[in-house]
Structure formats: structure tokens, C-alpha cells
Design brief:
Layout lengths: L17 H5 L3 H7 L30 E5 L6 E2 L14 E7 L6 H11 L5 E3 L2 H6 L1 H9 L3 E2 L16 H18 L8 E2 L8 H9 L3 E3 L3 E2 L8 H15 L2 E6 L3 H16 L3 E7 L7 H10 L10 H4 L6
Parallel strand pairs: 1-10, 2-7, 3-4, 3-9, 3-10, 4-5, 6-7, 8-9
Helix pairs in contact: 3-9, 6-10, 8-9
This protein binds zinc ion.
Zinc ion (ZN) binds next to loops.
Length: 313
């Protein structure tokens, strides 16, 4: 059994004005900390300086909730039934398998146009391919968790217990590396929503929250954007609320999102932003492994124009 100790929604902040909710709350949190952060403290995401929402008809953010991940709480009624925290007509938007060119930036643009937000569960490897895209996700104020290193299905019997832990830990370390050393939230989603019991227990010992979903958009199976919208709205209208599983990796999802968000707004749904009380504590050996893997980690980052200058032609 998993231990869900000390779980609480500290504050369950109801920042109702979307303009106010749109800014990252981490700055306020660090300001409220009783002690200055020691040198070993995990890096805190810098508060992005965001312009107020320019779209008067935006979907916005209805509520921000802070999650205490002590003991590894599980969210999403497809697998975890204990924590029924969403009110009627509330949704959480979640996006898996990024970061990916074109599609992730498209999703980011749509979310920005609607002044709303989601939780991103990037794959570790993808994060090392496209760290700049993942940095944009964080800079836009979205919540970033992790979705393993290589999207291995952790119930696969061929994997040893150590290999399963490696997938989880290296995934978080890769995301942290891609974010320039900023630790993501201790939010994790199992690939294919396959939950091996011993890894559920392990995540509990690591104080990492697990995210299943309430409704799966099945966007990875969709033939077109319209199908993503239809499947999602049909399920949502039946349930009345829920954590929605989507993939910023997929083209159809990126294409569907503008209309889907319009439909959410028209249907009276409100987006809930989930943030973690503290960032994940990555394990040093995995952070080092990522650094070793990264190609030319000490290469100069000077722009071409400062290195190569035409002096004659
Ligand atoms: Zn996935």
C-alpha cells in the first residue's frame, strides 16, 4: 500500500482573477520562506515577468492549488480514487511526451492566447534534445513534471527494479538539466499509465506525486484535430470535471487546442493550475550521469557573430 502521509492542499489558493493567477507564485513563496535558502537548496524557478492577459474573452485560470507531495499522493480517478479535489466544471490540462518542435511551441502559443496553463510531463530524452523548448514551457509559467527518461513501460517484466528506478530518476535529472538546473515539480506520470506497484511505493518514498487522469483524450489515436475535440468534450461533459490527458508531442493535439479551449470556455469550464509546494529533489548520481551524456557540455555559448567576423570579402 502506498502511504499518503501529510497530504494537504496548503491554501488551495483561490486566485480568481486570471490576471493575478497568471503570474508564477514561486517568487512569493521564496519571499515567505523563514530562512534564506542554503547553498544546497534546489534552484527555484525564476518568476517570469508576464504581461497581464490581453484577451478579455480568455479561458484564463480559475484557481491555483498547491500540492504537498509528501508520501507521493496520486491524482486522476482512472487509477487513484482518494483525492477528489476538483470542483464541478473544473479541469486540469496535462500534456505528455514533449518537448517537441512545432507542436510544443504551438501548444504554448494557444495556452498563452487563452491566458491559461497546464502541467507538462516531458520525456527525459526529448528534454535533452530540445532544452530550449522546455525552457519556454517553464518561462511561460506552466508546471513541469517528468515522464521517465525514455518512455519505457515500467511494468515490462524485462526491466529490473534498478532499471525502473533509473528511468524515473534519470528522467527528472534530464528535465532539470534541460531547464538549466531548475528542478521541476515532483509530479510524475507513468508511460501508458502502467503503474507497477513497487514503483508506486518507491515514488511515495521519494515524495513524488503521481498523475493518472480522469479522462484520456486518446489524441494519440485521433485521425484529426476534430476527433481530439469531440472525444475530449464528450467525456468531459459526461464527467463534469477532470484531469485531461493530452500530448503536446502530437500535431493533432496542437491543432485541436485552440477550438478545444474555446469549447471549454463556452461550456463554463475553469482551468485549475496545480503547483508543487517544493521542487523535486533529484539524486546527484543521475544529475552527473546526464552531464556526462550531454554532448560538449563546456562548449562556448558565444553567438556566432562574436566568434566569426567577416573582415574582408
Ligand atoms: Zn507518454
Amino acid at each position: 500500500m502506498r502511504v499518503v502521509a501529510g497530504l494537504m492542499f496548503a491554501g488551495a489558493l483561490s486566485l480568481l482573477a486570471s490576471g493575478a493567477a497568471w503570474s508564477q507564485t514561486s517568487a512569493a513563496k521564496s519571499a515567505a520562506a523563514p530562512q534564506p535558502a542554503p547553498a544546497a537548496a534546489p534552484a527555484v524557478a525564476p518568476a517570469p515577468t508576464k504581461a497581464p492577459c490581453a484577451n478579455p474573452n480568455a479561458l484564463g485560470i480559475g484557481r491555483v492549488v498547491e500540492i504537498d507531495t509528501t508520501g507521493g499522493p496520486g491524482f486522476g480517478f482512472e487509477h487513484f480514487k482518494q483525492l477528489d479535489f476538483l470542483r464541478d466544471k473544473e479541469v486540469v490540462l496535462t500534456f505528455d511526451d514533449g518537448p517537441w518542435p512545432l507542436n510544443t511551441p504551438s501548444v504554448l502559443k494557444t495556452l498563452a492566447d487563452e491566458c491559461t496553463t497546464g502541467i507538462f510531463f516531458p520525456i527525459g530524452k526529448h528534454s535533452t534534445y530540445y532544452p530550449e523548448i522546455l525552457k519556454q514551457v517553464l518561462a511561460a509559467g506552466h508546471t513541469v513534471g517528468s515522464h521517465t527518461w525514455s518512455h519505457a513501460i515500467l511494468t515490462n517484466k524485462k526491466l529490473t527494479e534498478d532499471q525502473r528506478k533509473d528511468e524515473i530518476e534519470k528522467g527528472f535529472s534530464a528535465v532539470k538539466w534541460a531547464l538549466g538546473g531548475v528542478s521541476p515539480s515532483p509530479f510524475f506520470r507513468f508511460p501508458a499509465l502502467q503503474h507497477p506497484p513497487e514503483m508506486v511505493t518507491y515514488l511515495g518514498t521519494r515524495n513524488i506525486a503521481m498523475f493518472s487522469c480522469d479522462l484520456d483524450s486518446f489524441d494519440f489515436k485521433a485521425r484529426n484535430a476534430q476527433q481530439v475535440i469531440d472525444v475530449t468534450m464528450k467525456k468531459l461533459d459526461k464527467l463534469g470535471k477532470g484531469i485531461i490527458l493530452m500530448h503536446d508531442f502530437h500535431k493533432h493535439t496542437a491543432e485541436a487546442l485552440p477550438e478545444l479551449l474555446h469549447r471549454l470556455k463556452a461550456g463554463g469550464y475553469k482551468v485549475v493550475k496545480m503547483v508543487s509546494k517544493v521542487p523535486v529533489q533529484t539524486l546527484p548520481q543521475y544529475d552527473e550521469e546526464i552531464l556526462k551524456d550531454a554532448k560538449l557540455p563546456t562548449v562556448s555559448e558565444r553567438p556566432v557573430s562574436s566568434v566569426v567576423q567577416t573582415i574582408s570579402e
